[in-house]
Design brief:
By secondary structure, the protein is α+β, with helices and mostly antiparallel strands. The chain is 52% helix and 8% strand. The chain has twelve helices and seven strands. Strands 3, 4, 5, 6 and 7 form a five-stranded mixed beta sheet that branches. It has a two-stranded antiparallel sheet with strand order 1-2. Helix 9 runs antiparallel to helix 10. The longest helix has 37 residues. It is elongated. The N terminus is likely disordered.
Length: 365
Amino acid sequence: RALGLLGDTAAVESLIDLLGISPFLGRGFTAEEEEPGSPRPVILSYVYWRSRFGGDPDVLERTIRVEGVESPIIGVLPPNVRIQDSDLSFLVPVRLDPDQGVGSWNFEGIARLAPGFSPSQASAELSALTPLACELYPGIALDELERRGFGTIATPLKAEVVGDTGKVLWVVFGTVALVLLLACTNVANLFLLKTDGLARDVALRRDLGASRERLFRQNLTESLILGVAGGLGGVALAWGGLRLLLRIAPPSLPRLVEVGLDAPTLLFSLGVTLAVGVVFGFLPELRRGGAPLVDSLNDGGRAGSTSRVRNRVRNLLAVVQVALALVLLAGSGLMIRTFLALREVPPGYERPAEVLTFRISIPGT
């Protein structure tokens, strides 16, 4: 059941209605089906419906045995539906019977906050309902709950599912940005060398009648081709790297099955590639400017007055490359040292490889 906080009132609605999910087949739970004593229905997941029942369209006329009880199938969830980070097989309604108690008092619910409500306000309001719950569902006294430090905490669903992974991803994003800047600095230096080498040729073509726009389009086309080729290579490398990392990644990482190259990622890569290509397409034109033919022909020789300036620019770019590489090298070294230090932290018990933790859930039947 899902509790939606609406100011001073609370509205109870089905979980699939709260999440805005339309069943692939059948319907969702009703309020009557959540009451104790009524037949408990089941909503199958799409994967379980395909694997267990072969995608039978008449599955709504069948039953499934859950904890020793025959339960009618009333619906099938649409494909790719995940509740938090679990691969569920089916859903059943939660039934809280005051005569039977509530067991361990350890439940998770999904709620939609009303406008203007914060998670801390929701936690305070739900905690205020604890004395009332102790009266409605006997079994654990209120003073015992207070002694154990029992409380109700509302946490944003994104923080519950993703955790601190976002901070790590920002670090990775910053590292990738530094690598991109390093590569761009390298390419900028190469473009400057190319511009200096072709300065006389370009100046001669311009004085023979080639327009500045035509020369700019040629440079832009070359830089875009180079950028797109590099972008395609990067996407191919990312795809292969993801396959390798997913194969060796620990299963404890959240939402591993959703890691991949989706449309927003490809569009971002395309945008960065085009932006870099346009910038380097402008670079030669900015360097050349409108210098006369005589100055261009004399440039680089004894009469050249801008050679030292260009050398300074190239030296500056080389210094930037070295500085970025040192930052990446230092960051990588610190991460490796932290990883090695974490591996040496004692877990608090001997031979952790021989320790096994597990849970046993015994049905009421």
